[in-house]
Amino acid sequence: MSKLTSLAAWIRPSDSQKKADFQARLRPHSRALYQTAFRLTGNQADAEDLTQELFLRLYQKWDHWHHLDNPLPWFLRTLTNLHIDTYRKIRHTHGANELTSNFDHLPFQVPALDSASPLALALANSRKCLLNQALNSLEAEHRSLVVLHLMEGYSLQEVAEIQHLPLGTLKSRLHRCKDKLKKILLREPFQENLRFNRVSSQED
Amino acid sequence: MKCIDAQRQLEHLDLQQQPGALLAEHLENCNECLSFHQDHQLQLHLQSFRVIGPDPDFINKALNAACQEPSIQPRKWTWPASMAASFVLVALLLTGWLVSNEPTNPLPATPLQVDSSQPEGQSTQQVRILIISDQDYSDAEISLALAGNLQLEGYANQRELTWRTQLKAGQNLLTLPIQVLEQGGELQVSSRFGDQKHQVIVNLEDIRS
Ligand SMILES: [Zn+2]
Question: Residue limits of the RNA polymerase sigma-70 region domain (chain A) (predicted)?
């Protein structure tokens, strides 16, 4: 007696049916997946590359997920795995040290701050910069946990299912990630000993 | 102050607001509330992350391209821009006074060696110094003194640098790309204009470790 799965394997859909199904199933999630890709990579060009690569992979693996009622966890797992692979490849090819190079900034770059621009704006820009740097300081595996759990609101249980990882591992990873992020983000920028202090003056 | 009241107040602080005196005092003595406060601040930072894009027709193109295998390959992975900015630290210093603002070229007047090589084991940190000046100054003097494990990018082996620059009344932002080697060390930034001199010392460490 044939099992349904083997029966299904015999009845292959036509290419056009497959394409139509692929697009219909993926399209409702496509923007959310791009968003996740952006949070993982931190910029539009890399997010678009990652999303494109994801779609291609999902089409190749359509047989693996098209029967699922909710394929989103499958999509997210593929996305985070692709991101981690890419990150490792870059580390392997270029070496960890090159990851620290900062080609975007020329020495003494001094953004012109309009004197009318509110201090809040300067601070907000600095915060944005700081946030990117904090996220970039995380390993790819850790960043996907932060993105899925802290930024996109998936419970740890859901992340465990998406990433096929034990809950305990995720909990300890999360703890380390938070510590690292706090170390960078919550540095007190105005500590007494970091301020400009008057050390001498002709009036003194 | 009770913890429940402290946490209720902390929940309403945004990233610009500092806790009031009573609350600050409570935080100094209560690890539970301090941890609550830090978690909340972290959450606010993460919520402030803005997603940009994609281009309007990107999704359609990407969905169609995916079905065209194997003729159309995804764009080859290049060096992600996010990686380039890794491990960069911003130290934002707010002061009542000065430091540089010369968008064109606030470089030292003396010719300096330029060395843009990046030996192994070092990281560049972006140190930003925000100065609020009470008036325009045409001839402010900025000096840097770098500990042995710090290098100003492009000025390898220069331990001290001094240059003159203009300051505008209001906000002036100076960005210093500092390479931090091994354990790091102290960066001293001093400024002099009119009859005033100010100094700030930043202890830079390699945040990868
Ligand atoms: Zn308390």
Answer: 27-91
